[in-house]
Amino acid sequence: MKSHFTRCLVAAALITGTVNVANAENYPDPRQTLNIIVPFGSGGVSDAIARILAEKFKAVWGTSAVVQNKPGGEFMVGAAALANAKKDGYTMGIITMGLVQNQIIKPQQPVNPFKAFSPIGMIAKTPLVLVVSKNSPYKTFKELQQVSAKNPGSLQFSSCCTAMWFSIEMLKHNAGLAGQHIPYKGSAPSVTAVASGETAYTVDTPLATQPFLGKGGKLHALAVLSRQRLPSLPDVPDLGEVGVSGKWELNTWYALAFPANTPVAIIDKANAALNKILAMPDVQQQFAHFVIQPDPMTPAQVSKQMHSDYDWYSDLIKQNHLHLF
C-alpha cells in the first residue's frame, strides 16, 4: 500500500513538472491576459509604473495587460493577492522597499516578502525629499536642526505610511532632527498637512511633493535625502551639502515580482522583457517625469537588495534604540 502511494506521489510530481516545463516553453502566450497587481490606489508612483509596464508588455509580448489596484492594510491586501495568485507567469505585482521595512516593524504581518514572492527584476528607484511649509520659520535644514536641539517638543511631522515614518525616524536619529509622529493615510493628506501648517515637516517622494514646490507652491524643500542633487530639483541641496556626513541616504525602490515558486524559466523570460522595456527611451522619458530612475537588475540582485535593506534598517534600529513597534 505504502509503495503504491509513493509511486502515485512520484507520478503526480513528474506530471506537475512536465506541465510546468511545457507552460514555461510556451510562455508568454498572447492569448492570455497579464495581470499587474498594485498594492496602492490609483494616482501614485506605483500605479504610474504599472500602467507604463502594462502598455509595454502588451507591445513586447502581444498579450493584453490589466492593472489591478488593491490598496489597504499597509500593502497587505495587494501583497496577499499576489502571493496567492497562480504561478503561471500571468500575475505579477509591484513590490516596494516599504514591504521589506514593514517586515522589520511588523514581523508577524500576513505576507513575508522573502517567502511569498519570486523577484522578476528591479524597476526603478527614487530618492526622498524633506519638505516644510512655504510659510515655515525654518528656511534651511540647519534651522530645523537648531530648533530640534533647542525645543524638540515643539515639532510634529507627518507621514503617509509606515515606510515614510521609518525613513523619517532614520533621518531624525542620524541628522539631529526631532518631532512627534502624526500618521496620515496617503501622501496627499500627509503633504497637505505640512502645506497647511498642521505639521512641521515630512519626507516623501519627489512625485508627491513636486506639485507643491517652486514659485507659487505651498512647500519648500530643505534637502534631497541622497548624496547628489536631483536634476528635477536643481536648487535643493543634498545630504552632504546640508552637513550630514556619511554615505547613507534615504530612497525607495520599486520591483516586479511573481508569486513564490514560479518556474525559473518563466521568471527569466519576464526579467529579459522587463529589462528590454526599461531600456526604451520613451519609458525612460516617462520615468523622468515621475522623478524615478530605471534600475534594471537580475532576480538574484533584487533578492540581495531586499536582504541588504532588511539588515541595514534592522541594524539602524538597534544602534539608535528606536521603538517603532
Automatic annotation (TrEMBL):
Transmembrane segments: none annotated. InterPro entries: BUG, Bug_dom1. Keywords: Signal. It holds the Pfam family TctC. Residues 1-24 form the signal peptide. Gene3D superfamilies: Bordetella uptake gene, domain 1 (3.40.190.150), Periplasmic binding protein-like II (3.40.190.10). Belongs to the UPF0065 (bug) family. This is ABC transporter substrate-binding protein. It comes from Candidimonas nitroreducens.
